[in-house]
Amino acid sequence: EDGSGSVLILSSTSQGVISGFYVFTADYTLYKFFTTGFNTWYLSEIVSGFEQTNPISITIERDATYKEHINRIIDDSGNYLYFQYNLSNYLSKVTLYLLVGFDGYFDPIYNELQKVEYEYTWISATSKYALASVSYCSDYLNDGWPQTSDQIVQYGYDASGKMNNAEGSDQNELSSINTAFGKMDEITIRFN
């Protein structure tokens, strides 16, 4: 215990190899981690509400090859977020699936409720990709995705590659001006 009320719990094999890494917090939340054996630990589950009759948990499934990539985050009800990545290994889409029942073979039936899509642009000043836009879409009636997104936010960058603009499709905008030393000099927020 480090004074925060959190407790670090390590479990090990009979050979002394650490096989489990857990953090139990003062608010009765347990964080479970797993390792690939290379001194890198990945969050795999969060369980909260140990003081309640039925604790709540979410499970984090990761890609077998790229452990830093989350494939799904699943709640106790079977609902989940599904993460997709582009060929450059950047997050490209997150979709929320709601469990609505089971078919005659007890296979789960899901509705796609919401999705968020990410697009990137190459910034030559930094030689890296940066977020170009994020689009949000909902299908609450389960009658197919609409032709247009509910909201799109587009991002702009200055000559040095620093983000200086974010504008939503509702015409709300946040923009900034950076100084020659890379510090933010001015912020403008415009609401429509």
Describe this structure in words.
This protein has 192 residues and is an all-beta fold. The chain is built from no helices and 14 strands. Strands 1-2-3-4-5-6-7-8-9-10-11-12-13-14 form a 14-stranded antiparallel beta sheet, with no helix packed on it. The radius of gyration is 22 Å and the shape is globular. The N and C termini lie far apart (50 Å). The relative contact order is 0.07.
Poorly predicted sequence stretches spanning 5 or more consecutive residues:
none
Number of helices: 0
Side-by-side strand order of the widest sheet: 1-2-3-4-5-6-7-8-9-10-11-12-13-14
Range of helix content: under 10%
Would you tell me the structural class of the helices and strands?
Answer: mainly beta
- How large is the radius of gyration? 22 Å
Overall mean pLDDT stands at 85
Main β-sheet: number of strands, strand sense, barrel status?
14 strands, antiparallel
Question: What brief labels describe this structure?
Answer:
about 0% helix; mainly beta; about 190 residues
State the gist of this model.
The chain has strands at 7-12, 18-24, 29-35, 41-48, 56-62, 70-75, 80-85, 91-102, 108-123, 128-138, 151-157, 163-168, 173-178, 184-190. The protein has 192 residues and is mostly beta strands. A hairpin with a 7-residue loop joins β4 (41-48) and β5.
